[in-house]
Amino acid sequence: MAGLILIAAIALFSLWMVFIYNRLVRLRNDVGSAWSQIDVQLKRRHDLIPNLVAAVKGYMDFERDTLERVVSARAAAAAAVGIHEKAVSEGRLTRAIDGLFMVMENYPVLKSSENVMHLQEELVSTENRIAFARQFYNDLVANLRTKLEVFPDTIIASLFSFRSAEYFSAGEEDMALPSAGLSMRRND
Asked: From residue 18, how far is each of 14, 22, 25 by CA, in Å?
């Protein structure tokens, strides 16, 4: 009888370990999948930016600095590796794009260009998708971190070397309001 109780206890303990392990694997994979969705949206944004810059370049002769900031920020964001570096470089790119949108307000001909307006709408839509994907990713990271830290999951996590994921967060400089850097010269 004692042997059966011992076997049942070992079986229950093993099932408990498998359950926790599988839950941690599922959470880790969910975080990875959510990160992939952020990458997809960032790639979409990176693909739209050159089209927008090309569309507005001819109209904005005196705003080369603004366009160069966008192009430079895009190149840095595309080359970034790792979550922290991507978050910082994408924040800079967002500020550069916001600055471009602010400068574009000074050019009525741009507001009447269907192509420019369409590209701007696509970019704004993509920014919204990125924001949603970031929030979803960070929610999953929070869930994973909680599971890795609570008892008894922390035991299994330690046994199988589960690692926490990094939040995709904006730095202090990314929370500052964008500066348009408007020039008063016009090409009339």
From this structure: 6, 6, 10
pTM value is 0.77
- Domain total for the chain? 1
Question: Rounded to whole angstroms, how far apart are CA atoms 143 and 147?
Answer: 6
pLDDT confidence of residue 177: 47
Would 87 be classed as within a structural domain? yes
Q: Which domain holds residue 141?
A: 39-175
Q: How far apart are CA 90 and CA 69, in angstroms?
A: 13
Alpha carbon 185 to its chain centroid, in Å, reads 36
Q: What are the pLDDT digits (tens) for 164-186?
A: 999 987 655 545 444 444 343 44
Question: Looking at residue 79, what is its pLDDT?
Answer: 92
DSSP symbol at 152: T
Q: Within the chain, how many helices (H) and strands (E) appear?
A: 6, 0
Is 105 contained in some domain?
yes
Residue 18 belongs to a domain: no
> Does 27 fall in a domain?
no
Low-confidence ranges of the chain (pLDDT < 50): 174, 176-188
Instruction: Specify the CATH number for the domain of residue 167.
Output: 1.20.1440.20
Write down the H helix ranges in 105-163: 108-111, 114-149, 153-159
Q: Are 184 and 103 in contact (CB under 8 A)?
A: no
Q: What is the rounded distance in angstroms from the CA atom of residue 123 to the CA atom of residue 136?
A: 20
